[in-house]
Write a structure and sequence with these properties.
2 copies of one chain form a homodimer. Chain A is α/β, with parallel strands linked by helices. Chain A has 2 domains: about 30-385, Alkaline Phosphatase, subunit A (3-Layer(aba) Sandwich); about 395-460, Arylsulfatase, C-terminal domain, CATH 3.30.1120.10. Helices cover about 25% and strands about 15% of the residues of chain A. In chain A, the strands form 3 sheets. A 10-stranded mixed sheet of chain A has the order 7-6-5-4-8-1-9-10-2-11. Chain A has a 4-stranded antiparallel sheet with strand order 13-14-15-16, covered by helices on one side. Chain A is globular and about 55 Å long.
């Protein structure tokens, strides 16, 4: 009798602990959608504390999914952050961090090396289709474009939406003045940014007012295609907004209480809602994992046109929390267990996580900086990641180990305060003090010693490659090596 | 046929627009519970953006109720803020704002004048019972205690929990040093704060480790009593935490990721959850309106022991948003319509709101600063309040009209930056720029003119009474005029 009851308990226990996803594992493959927005800060969604931006669709995803409050990017600016997400590796490992330029420009010569394995290429091994809609920014010469990096289709702009500015005689001003003083006068035609399909320019200048909607239309078409052909897919939807210059569709102008920036964020929110709706309509909501996050913190130097990192310190460009901790949501009803997650995670972890879910072995010929987050997603188990490396240029500025973060070097996001080397490093407990206000280095020499060991082990297996961002040449400008 | 369908539509329309509450109006009276916490900042709940404090019970109330993101207190420090809530009037109208002292101290002579009508007295007119559990801080001499201000019962401490400090020879330090350096060494017995029941001291020093739980026990007893006697009630539950010194019950120590401050906030959260649970168990959740808010912003000068205002500027003591905008939740399933509310509201509005719901006419012999928020609560109608007055000491420092806020005077919360008079005033759009970073006065002379008119009209009906906070006398110390 006792033994029978014991067996029942055991069975019940197994059943309860069994990851939610297990029931799908042998039946339906999981699709992956990553919505990666540009320059949105930790505090820019209502569910992350913004008082006047209203993001009901993303907030609903928070309610139904997991809200990650300690989720990081691989770098605090565009190009290296995107490289990190797609390769599962710190960008310092593949040359996409530089001492000279922080991102690719229209006259940059290089791109993500062909030797890198992108998430698209990785998931292909399990028969996934792969699509990118939106901003690439990993090299715009033909060899470097997404369709040469494992993506089946590409619809989007090749670099940032503020590049290719066509000088306006009436706007004689510095870069920063442009945003502070003249933003109202800017038109989408002032930026000669190309819109590509595959490797072909289909519109130039891209009409940026309608891109959020058009990207979403494209994404929905992709969802519908795979509802038909039943092929599992990876969709990387990288909105180039709310990066300045800010543009919204006609109907959205002045709709938010937060000004133009709020209008843009609310348009993105509504369009993420359309994606969720399309998944539901196509009955793919139970086998699709959607991740929402941002490529780096808010661009504070663009003043009222930039977002906010909430209580986190500094923003884009900086290795303080505001530069690299992002508002992150995992959504997938029936796949992941809803809740608020304080485990550490990074965009680089998507590589190992998606690989594990899709059943693809990780490459063994290179160092990855990627942890499988699926135990946390499926059953809220504590994660394996215990450290975050905050690189800037080609230097390790800061390291987080558990709750503690040591800053070896600090510098303002875009140079508002100078480079300072700290010896001993600054030490913050970023769980107790997320705003990084109170240096506690003198109280915790033991913690500093432990972090120093982590750094030593990390540096021992780091081989700095050639700087691929440094080479620029006017003759490579304007996509001349892409067929238009 | 058409006419019949039209009538059906009309009836349906009427039904839909009919406030939810209407169905209760003639049947069951609504009870009111105000949970008023001490020194908690705008950013201290997970649902208001805190990354490492976890407040699932309050977050659940946000989900089921209304989250107000533009809700203010009547003053940025304790005594005047409490007076404002209980009287529905700016404290500058009744002498509880001073040029010398900002709050009552144990040797203060005065208290809230008997001529003031408290919410307790007001609701009595409709047959309500009234109870206060927690911190009073509106005068501790017998004549001023809550039971002489309309409350039937009182269980709590008469002033702040950091008062009556018994000098410790081993802690030779300034007030600020006490929190920064010695907090770990402080014991609940170091503060000779009395705990009263009615006008009688029942414990001294109050054991502050268990107060949150004991206050909640008392509140639940009150709920159960009125479940029995069916008398409608107003319960003012004013936790004296997370004001420093921070104390938690044994089981809570070290439980949060945010250190001692997080432990305290999470203990309050769990205990608010107990109140909601008790309402459900007693089947009073459908006819009780619960309001949660804080008396002022976080006490930033207590460093790692204080909370955070999130992205809002400054904290307690200041007339920047961080000092006076509070994380506010209205909960009452079946009474109020859930949602995120951007309408302006203040604690003073509870007076007119509760009066309207209880059916009590507002007093006509005095000026109130109170708007009835019930149309927003019942049917999310836009509110009538369009302005907020930010007083400090006896001066009008700032005024918000719609989205715009003009600062005539600024000063740091506790003197970290000096008093500055602004002429022309600083002007912020606090919807577009909640962090008050960008002065736009020169761009909007029209707005400044409009605000100036509001100020003129306001000042024309303001008669400054005697300063009741200025009188202190050691001989009045230690509750000697209260029977112990």
């Amino acid at each position: 009798m006792y033994s029978k009851r014991f067996t029942t308990y055991l069975l019940l226990l197994c059943f309860c602990c069994f990851p939610l996803y297990a029931q799908y594992k042998t039946t339906t493959p999981i699709n992956f959608i990553v919505v990666f927005v540009d320059d949105m800060g930790y505090g820019d969604l209502s569910s992350f504390g913004h008082p006047s931006i209203h993001t009901p669709h993303l907030d609903q995803m928070v309610q139904e999914g997991q809200q990650w409050t300690n989720f990081y990017v691989g770098a605090s600016v565009c190009t290296p952050s995107r490289a990190a997400l797609l390769t599962g590796r710190l960008p310092v490992r593949n040359g996409l961090m530089s001492d000279r330029f922080r991102v690719f420009f229209p006259d940059s010569k290089n791109g993500l090396p062909a030797s890198e394995i992108t998430l698209a290429e990785q998931l292909k091994k399990a028969g996934y289709a792969a699509h990118i809609v939106g901003k690439w920014h990993l090299g715009h010469r033909k060899a470097y474009l997404p369709t040469n990096h494992g993506f089946d289709t590409y619809f989007g702009i090749p670099y940032s939406n503020d590049m290719d500015f066509v000088p306006r005689p009436d706007l004689q001003s510095s870069y920063w003045e442009l945003w502070k003083v003249h933003h109202d006068k800017l038109k989408t035609t002032d930026f000669h940014v190309p819109l590509l399909r595959g490797t072909t320019v289909v519109e130039r200048p891209a009409n940026q007012n309608t891109l959020v909607q058009r990207y979403t239309d494209e994404a929905i078409k992709i969802i519908e295609t795979h509802q038909q052909d039943k092929q599992p897919f990876f969709l990387y939807l990288a909105h180039n907004l709310p990066h300045v210059p800010l543009f919204v569709s006609e109907g959205r102008k002045g709709k938010s209480k937060n000004g133009l920036y709020g209008d843009v964020v609310e348009e993105i929110d509504a369009n993420v809602g359309r994606i969720i709706e399309a998944l539901k309509e196509n009955k793919m909501d139970k086998n699709t994992l959607v991740v929402f996050t941002s490529d780096n913190g808010p661009w504070l130097q663009t003043k009222h046109l930039g977002g906010t990192a909430g209580m986190l310190r500094d923003g884009k460009g900086s290795t303080f929390e505001g530069g690299m901790r992002e508002p992150t949501i995992f959504w997938g009803p029936g796949i992941i267990q809803p809740g608020r997650i304080s485990a550490l995670g990074t965009t680089m972890d998507l590589f190992a996580t998606f690989s594990a879910i899709a059943g693809v072995a990780l490459p063994k010929d290179r160092i990855l900086d990627s942890y499988d987050l699926s135990p946390t997603l499926f059953s809220k188990k504590s994660g394996k990641r215990n450290e975050v490396f905050y690189y800037r240029e080609r230097e390790l500025y800061a390291v987080r180990v558990g709750a503690y973060k040591a800053h070896y070097i600090t510098k303002g996001g875009y140079g508002e305060f100078p480079l300072t080397v700290h010896d001993p490093p600054l030490l913050y407990n970023v769980d107790e003090d997320p705003a990084e206000r109170f240096d506690i280095a003198t109280q915790h020499p033991d913690v500093l010693k432990k972090i120093e060991q982590v750094v030593k082990a990390h540096k021992a297996q780091l081989h700095m490659p050639e700087d691929l961002l440094k080479d620029r040449d006017k003759s490579y400008n304007n996509l001349q090596n892409s067929k238009r």
